[in-house]
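Exercise 7b. Backbone tokens:
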């Protein structure tokens, strides 16, 4: 595992434990070169999932990409990292239940919005504003008014 601080490939595992209801393994690691500690998660990938983008192109599902977009929406909000991991896990379960080997990116976006709406309204609006590509302030206001109903 490469160190995220100095990019050294020399790391050691300090601690391993089950995470996310036994669906992952959380590992604490230490870089042997710079001494920084960091956490990694290990997941089982049952089969490659292909995402069908809006332009019709296809790409392999990337968990880190999903997690990053949720983190951006939750930036500076009182949402712990564990909750973000839980949201990603729930979205992945939703994907497995609704699709085979391919799913439209639109469906994933809808799942993210559903979970963020239940978690934090500000994070939901942030994600929705990018996902739905609001063109002006009126669209933004309409989305906020829909939430109030």
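Sequence design result:
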């Amino acid at each position: 595992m490469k160190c995220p601080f100095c990019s050294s490939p020399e790391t050691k595992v300090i601690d391993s434990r089950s995470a996310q209801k036994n669906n992952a393994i959380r590992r604490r690691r230490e870089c042997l070169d710079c001494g920084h500690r960091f956490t990694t998660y290990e997941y089982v990938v049952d089969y490659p999932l292909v995402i069908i983008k809006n332009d019709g192109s296809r790409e392999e599902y990337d968990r880190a990409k999903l997690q990053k977009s949720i983190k951006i929406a939750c930036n500076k909000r009182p949402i712990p990292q564990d909750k973000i991991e839980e949201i990603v896990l729930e979205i992945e379960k939703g994907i497995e239940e609704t699709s085979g080997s391919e799913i439209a990116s639109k469906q994933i976006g809808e799942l993210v919005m559903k979970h963020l709406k239940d978690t934090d309204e500000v994070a939901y609006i942030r994600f929705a504003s990018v996902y739905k590509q609001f063109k002006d302030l009126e669209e933004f206001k309409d989305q906020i008014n829909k939430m109030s109903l």
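Instructor comment: The two ends are 48 Å apart (CA to CA). The chain has two domains: 1-44, 46-148.
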